Amino acid sequence: MTDPKLKEEKARQGETGKGVRYVLVISTIAAVIGLGLIFAFVI
Hints:
Shape: rod-shaped
């Protein structure tokens, strides 16, 4: 095998935003609460 030409940080295609983790967690919690409310009012 040949040695890599680029270091790991340079070879990455993009950079994730700083708040991606929090947006994912908050939106997942909001979806669960919303579906729970819909389910509670339908039944």
